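Morning!

This is the sequence you dropped in the shared folder:
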Amino acid sequence: MPTDTTGMAPYAMSDAKTITQATRTRRIFAFLSSFLFLLALIFLILVEIGNLNARHPVLPSIYFIKLDLSNIIPRSVPNSRLINSIARTLGVHDFYQVGLWNFCEGYGDDITACSKPTKLYWFNPVEILLNELLAGATIALPSNITDALTLVRIASRWMFVLFLTGTCLTVPSAILAPLAIYTRWASLPLTILTFLAALTTTAATIIASAMFLIFRKAIRSAADTINIEAEIGTKMFVFMWIASGAAILGWLIQLGGCCCCASARDVRTGRRRGRRKAYPPFGTGSGAGATGAEEKPRARRRWLSGSG
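The structure's back. Tokens below.
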């Protein structure tokens, strides 16, 4: 049996109950890290399946941005109501909303159809409108919106890849995080894995947030030319940032596990004792001898001071 490095009496490090109690702090943080990555995974899945099914009661409400074209011609234009009615007759829907894989369209508050899910999807409203208008019809957009679409195309593809990569890395992070309980050697690869999961998820969230906020600003700046209202999807943004925050916290816990809290191997080999409460001052088992040896000098000092 190993001995305490401070000169205390030997104690049984092979006691499974003692090891469990001594590593309780590390155990709590390891399972907390696993829970945080599981939480991140749930919200990442919601981000990825949002806007996929028009008939689902919840998914249509999860989108990045929603464009309202019901009054595409400004009221300042003569006969704007008539022209808007004609545009609707030609095939322009009242709104279009964007998800990670596709877009959905509809009239009023009802979604009538969603496009087929496409990998590396990016939202191109010009192409959509031209495809839905009658043959020979055209539509012109201001240059600032056209420039914003170029940014959307590039950023959307990066966002798509990063969200899927983050999801794939979050799964093993949630499953393997508890391995840090047993040995400190597991903390280093787990820290690298969880760092990549947090990095890709957060990078995708930042790209999506910046891209659609810039796109909304570009649309609003062209309100005098073309009357399109842009609304950011609150649920989608909340889900993205919850997933990113949970992944970052989970990674920080794994990072701290590289140097903090005794692992089962530390306690078993005597490198660290872990929680003091694992070794009760009175009782039998692994901690009794060590604690008793510590209590005797204290009792002797109290007797000497009392006799003096």
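Headline: The longest strand covers residues 103-107.

More detail when I'm at my desk.
O.
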